[in-house]
Amino acid sequence: MPTFFEPKELVTPGDLLAEGNYMAGENAYCENKKVFAARIGLVEYDNRKVRVVALRAFYIPRIGDIVIGIVTEVGFNGWEVDINAPYTAVLRASDVLERGFRPQKNDLLSILDIGDLIVAKVAAYDRGSNPIIKISEPGLGKISRGQLIKVTPTKIPRIIGRKGSMITMIKRETNCRITLGQNGLIIVSGKNHEDERLAIMALRKIEEESHTSGLTDRIAEMIRKQKEGRKNV
Amino acid sequence: MSKPEKLLDKKGLRLDGRKLDELRPIKMEVGVLNNADGSAYLEQGKNKVLAAVYGPKEVHPKHLALADRAILRCRYHMAPFSVEERKSPAPSRREIELSKVIREALEPAVFLEYYPRTAIDIFIEILQADGGTRCAGITTAALALADAGVPMRDLVVACAAGKVDGKLALDLMDLEDKYGEADVPLAMMPGINAVTLLQMDGSLTLEEFQKAVKMAMEGCKQIYEMQKKALKAKYVAIKEEIQE
User: Fold this and answer.
1) Domain A66-143 CATH superfamily
2) Do domains A10-54 and A66-143 have the same CATH topology?
3) Which of A10, A86, A127 sits opposite B58 (nearest CB)?
4) Of B106, B161, B160, whose CA–CA distance to B133 is shortest?
5) Domain residue ranges of chain A, discontinuous segments joined by +
6) Which chain B residue has the Cα nearest residue A17?
7) Taking a C-beta distance cutoff of 8 angstroms, is the pair A215, A206 a contact?
8) If phi over 0 gives left and psi between -120 and 50 gives alpha, with beta otherwise, what is residue A130?
9) Which residue of A has its CA nearest to B234?
10) Partner of A18 for a Cys bridge, out of A3, A156, B58, B73, CB 3.0 to 4.6 A?
C-alpha cells in the first residue's frame, strides 16, 4: 500500500496520493482504491487518512464557525449578510431582538444597516438552504472600529497557529485586538495606525508563506525589526 | 496569410521549423488577475489566451440554479484584434459553439455536486489566435479553476493532432489547420486517464485517426506536466526564497 509523496509536499489536483487501503480526507477523493488530490495544497498522511491542506480555497460555512460578515440587505424580518461564501447568510430579527419581534414596532434599520460589519456564529446550515447566523452570544455583534482585511479562508488555522501560538504572539507584540472570522475576514483594531499596519503586515506575510516551516519565529523577528526601525526614526 | 506552396519542407520540417511530433513553445502563468477568484495566462506559439474564473457564487438569474449541483458557465471569446481581419466583438456562432464544447470538456473534472445552487463562471479571452485556440482555452481554464480553489478530479489538458501534406502532425497552427487535411482536437484528464473532448474536422482513415488520437494524448501529457509546474511555481519560489 504505497504512498507517493513526502508529507507536506506540494500537490496539484489529480495527483495520485496513495493506493490501497486509504481513506480520502479533506480536499482529496477516492476512486477504485486510489486517493487523488482535489485541490492545490500540502499533502498530509494521518494513519489511513490522506488529506490535503489547501492553499487555494473558498469558505464553506460550518455550524459553530465564527464569521465576519457585511450586511447587504435589510428585509422585513431580518437581514441578508455577505459572509464571503458561495451562499449569503440570513440573520433573523427574532434572534437579535430579545423580547420578540414586532414588525410594527421595531425598526430593523436602526439596529443594523446595509454596509455594517458584524461578528456572527453560524447557527444552521445544510445543502438545501442558505446558512442562518446569530449574534445573540457574548462577543458577537456589530463592529464599530478597526481595519478589515481578507485572506484565503484555509489559512486561518495557520494564522491561529498551534494552540493559538501565532495569533497570541501577534496580539502581544502589536497590542492589537484581532478578530478572526473562519471565512477569511479579519478585523484588526489597535491604539494607533502604526500598530494596525504592523499587525496587517504580519498577517499578510503568514498568508503568503503559509506553506513553509518555522513561520512563527520569522514573523516574530519581522515584528521586532519593524518596531526597532520605528523607534530609531 | 495566403496558402503556402508546401506545409512541409524537404527535411520533413514544418513551416515554423518544428518536427512533426513537436509542440509549440508554451509559457504559462497562474494568478495573473487580481479581481478574479482564479486566473491564468497561456502562450502557445503565437496563441495568447487569458482565462478568469469567478465563483462558486449565487446564481443570477435565480431560475437557472440547480438544487443538486452547481452550474458551470463558460464564455469563449476572441478579441477583435486576435485575428488578421478585425473580428466583430459580438459572439459569433462559432464562439457560442466553442463555449459549449469547452464547458462540456471541463464539467467532468469539477466536483459540481459539492456546491448546489451555485454557479461557477469561466471567461476565456483569446488575445491572439494562431490555430488550436479551443485547446489552449481548455488548458488555460483548467489552470484558472485550480487557482480559484475549485475542487477538481484532475486538471484538464487539451492538444490537437492532424494531418498536413499527407503526414500526421502534433499541435497544428493556423495555416496547417486551414490548408491541411484534418484536425483532431482532444482534451483529457491524464491523471485518471479520461478523455473529455474529441472532435475531428477533415478526413482520416481509421488507422490515421487512431494514430492521431495517440499523438494528441502524448502532447496532452507533455502540457500536463507544464500545467502542474505552473501551478506550483508561485509557492516553490517563496519557499526557495526563504530557505536561502
Assistant:
1) Nucleic acid-binding proteins (2.40.50.140)
2) yes
3) A86
4) B160
5) 10-54, 66-143, 147-227
6) B191
7) yes
8) beta
9) A208
10) A3
Q: What phi and psi, each to the nearest 5 degrees, are found at residue A153?
A: -55, -35
Cell numbers 484536425 label which residue? B183
The ipTM assigned to this model is 0.92
Identify from A39, A56, A213 which residue to disrupt to test chain B contact, counting B C-beta atoms within 10 A and taking the largest count: A56
Give per-residue burial for B132-160: e unless 16+ CB within 10 Å, then b.
Answer: bbbbbbbbbbbbbbbbbbbbbbbbbbbbb
pLDDT, averaged in runs of 10, over chain B (244 residues): 85 93 96 96 97 95 94 97 96 97 97 96 98 96 97 97 95 94 96 95 96 97 97 90 79
Chain A residues near residue B190 by CB distance under 8 angstroms:
14
CB nearest to A12's CB, from B58, B117, B228: B228
**CATH T-level topology, domain A147-227:** Ribosomal Protein S8; Chain: A, domain 1 (3.30.1370)
Tens of pLDDT along A21-63?
999 999 999 999 999 999 999 999 988 899 999 999 999 999 9
Name all domains of chain B by residue range, CATH numbers in brackets: 26-237 (3.30.230.70)
Q: At what angle do helices A193-208 and A215-232 cross, to 10 degrees?
A: 150
Q: Which residues contact A72 (CB under 8 A, 6 or more apart)?
A: A80, A81, A82, A88, A114
Which CATH code, of 2.40.50.100, 3.40.50.300, 2.40.50.320, 3.90.70.10, is assigned to A10-54?
Answer: 2.40.50.100
Q: Please report the pLDDT score of residue A116 as a whole number.
A: 94
| Residues of chain B positioned with their CB less than 8 A from the CB of A55 | 235
Which of A8, A11, A12, A83 best probes binding to B when mutated, by most B CB atoms within 10 angstroms? A12
The interface residues of chain B toward chain A in range 150-189, judged by CB-CB distance below 8 A, are: 151-155, 189
